[in-house]
Design brief:
Length: 445
């Protein structure tokens, strides 16, 4: 019998299968093992200085912001792209005017500060979406996302940084909020491992948003020294007309001032060569064009936002029963893992990987080694999904672990996937009769 428990973490999900009750003689069952405590990044409070728009006629606001940083991959390799979500659950600023603000007129942008093994900042931006705000009422919570490329192994800390709340109602107004004593407390930490030969090229933006025609500072590092680099805007998977060419310095770095005129530009990439190549490029770095063009008389501007979701998984059940074998003969105790459904609704460039590792099977008569459990993975992709699921290789699972299924990185990824496996435990012929229990842990990143 296999017993399953689930523990979750925002953007990182772990399912624990207790593969138990392999009945060799006399029957019997084993109670489900206690689930491990959930892991989570920490919300933090930090002092913030917010400057209301001059038209409000009120002084700066010194208050406290509550925020949390989460990532889609807490254990990346050097060269991987990590998606960062900066959620402000309690802004320090509020509606500065005696006028109710309608829904979906706020566009937040900001920065996440990196520390530890890697320094710098991640530009993040959120959709134009909010609940109505009463006159002089508190701004509602909001989330912003962005990406960064891992360039150094080790522990990388992430702390909330400055943010700006742009409102588009009657007029275009900004409420910038800065961290009073930077850096703010650490909210999330990722642990990166080395990956020899990985593409370490990376870019960062001076700001996460701007009006049409404004220039954004693009800083690149770890490109080929003295190489020509194309810096270009992206609208989804397509390049926009916002483009320029620069030459890197003797250390492979560059600073470009890219004029962003195309209102559909949603990100910026940089690459060596005649066309985009993920092995010779970096990005996309998130960028939002705030269209402040007033509509013509007698017309109305209609805005629609597509909100990013999460990477998650669910399981069809929490019990798997393996077939029994006879004392003196041994052989394969077989079964099927409960079906796992993976939903990737993040809307970014990152794929996912579902891996598993198993403990030894223990019982009153001794133990059966973890290396005796093997599987044959299978997965299917729901029609219309941008990504295609790839099953892992058949073979031993063991305590070191193996891949059950995955999807690759790409320009646009996501979708819904069904994952399963045939499992087989090789039981030695003269294993003492009784019930044996192991724990198979699946991790989705």
């Amino acid at each position: 019998m296999a017993l399953l428990r689930t523990r979750t973490r925002r953007r990182r999900w772990t399912a624990a299968f207790g593969v138990t009750a392999l009945v060799l003689a006399g029957g019997g069952t084993l109670a489900a093992p206690a689930g491990a405590a959930a892991l989570a990044s920490a919300p933090v409070d930090f002092a913030t200085h917010c400057v209301p728009p001059p038209i409000a006629g009120i002084p700066p606001i010194d208050g406290t912001t509550t925020a949390q940083i989460t990532v889609d991959n807490p254990t990346p390799k050097v060269g991987d792209t990590v998606t960062v979500t900066y959620t402000v659950t309690k802004p320090a600023a509020s509606n500065p005017v005696d006028l109710a603000l309608p829904a979906d007129i706020m566009t937040p942008t900001g920065k996440v500060a990196l520390g530890g093994a890697q320094s710098g900042a991640v530009t993040v931006a959120g959709p134009k979406k909010n609940d109505p705000v009463p006159p002089k009422g508190s701004f509602p919570p909001f989330s912003m996302t962005g990406t960064f490329t891992v360039t150094q192994p080790g522990s990388i800390t992430l702390s909330p940084g400055d943010y700006n709340i742009h409102t588009s109602y009657l007029m275009e107004l900004d409420t910038p909020c800065t961290v009073t004593n930077p850096p703010a407390p650490v909210s999330e930490t990722v642990v990166a491992t080395a990956q020899p030969g990985a593409n370490e090229r990376n870019i960062s933006l001076g700001t996460a948003s701007g009006a049409p025609g404004e220039r954004v500072t693009v800083t690149g590092a770890k490109f080929t020294p003295l190489a020509e680099v194309t810096v270009v805007g992206r609208a989804g998977a397509a390049e926009t007309a916002d483009r320029m060419t620069v030459t890197t310095d003797s250390e492979g770095g560059f600073v470009a001032r890219l004029a962003v005129n195309d209102k559909t530009t949603s990100g910026v990439v940089a690459y060596e060569g005649a066309a985009w190549d993920p092995e010779k490029g970096a990005g996309p770095a998130r960028y939002t064009v705030i269209d402040n063009t007033p509509p013509p008389p007698g017309s109305q501007k209609l805005n629609a936002a597509v909100n990013a979701g999460e990477l998650s998984m669910t399981q069809a059940g929490d019990t798997v029963e393996l077939s029994s074998v006879d004392f003196g003969q041994g052989g394969a105790a077989t079964g099927d893992l409960q079906t796992v459904t993976v939903k990737d609704f993040r809307g970014g460039p990152a794929g996912w990987s579902l891996t598993g590792k198993v403990s030894d099977f223990t019982g009153a008569g001794g133990s059966i080694g973890a290396d005796k459990l093997s599987w044959t993975p299978a997965c299917t992709t729901k029609a219309g999904s941008p990504s295609t699921c790839v099953p892992g290789s058949a073979g031993s699972v063991g305590s070191g672990g193996a891949t059950l299924a995955s999807t690759p990185n790409g320009t646009v990824t996501g979708g819904e996937f069904t994952v399963g496996a045939k499992v087989s435990l090789a039981v030695p012929a003269f294993t003492a009769p009784g019930t044996y229990a192991g724990l198979l842990t699946l991790t989705l990143t």
